[in-house]
Design a protein that fits this description.
Elements lengths: L3 H11 L8 H13 L10 E6 L5 E6 L24 H8 L8 E7 L3 H10 L2 E8 L6 H7 L3 E4 L6 H9 L2
Length: 169
């Protein structure tokens, strides 16, 4: 059973309240744009960490090699062990907010079990929004035990078309 706050979020992200995209959907779209910077040859993933009030991007990342190292996978044929840092890891590394500050996480792919643990240890994560399923749902229990509310949310499919339509209306 969902609490009233969760129902309010679902109503807002569904677009049922007005004709504008929700901030959650815009952040998810931004995470997809971050994924465009990925240097992993297997999968492109982006992640944003934002303040609970949606006013500040606190950290962002994409999957790829470490800074000042060669771009690309160290072990491209090893599924799940290519050597790239995950998008969530990079967003956590880049997050400047203290543990006590409430945060929302937007990631293009549901986190792996290790990234879920890292997000719990980041502290303050109240909700996680993801677009695509990961090949295992092992992280769900980790996030749920930390009282992180999970939502599946897709990005704006055609942001350019949406913008042009708004400008022409």
């Amino acid at each position: 059973m969902m609490n009233p706050e969760e129902l309010e979020v679902l109503e807002r992200i569904s677009g049922a309240r007005d004709d504008r995209p929700s901030l959650e959907r815009l952040f998810m779209t931004m995470a997809h744009f971050m994924a465009l910077r990925s240097t992993c040859s297997r999968r492109s993933v982006g992640c944003l960490i934002v303040s609970e009030d949606d006013r500040h991007v606190l950290g962002m990342g994409y999957n790829g090699g470490a800074s000042h190292q060669e771009n690309g996978c160290e072990r491209p044929k090893e599924s799940g062990n290519c050597g790239c840092l995950h998008a969530e890891e990079n967003a956590i590394i880049n997050c400047y907010a203290p543990r006590s500050q409430p945060k929302k996480v937007f990631t293009t792919v549901f986190p792996c079990p290790q990234c879920a643990k890292r997000l719990v240890n980041l502290g303050g994560v109240v909700s996680l929004f993801y677009a695509q399923d990961y090949h295992t749902d092992a992280a769900i229990n980790t996030l749920s035990r930390a009282n992180i509310i999970i939502y599946q949310l897709h990005p704006l499919l055609f942001p350019k078309d949406f913008i042009e339509a708004k400008l022409n209306s």
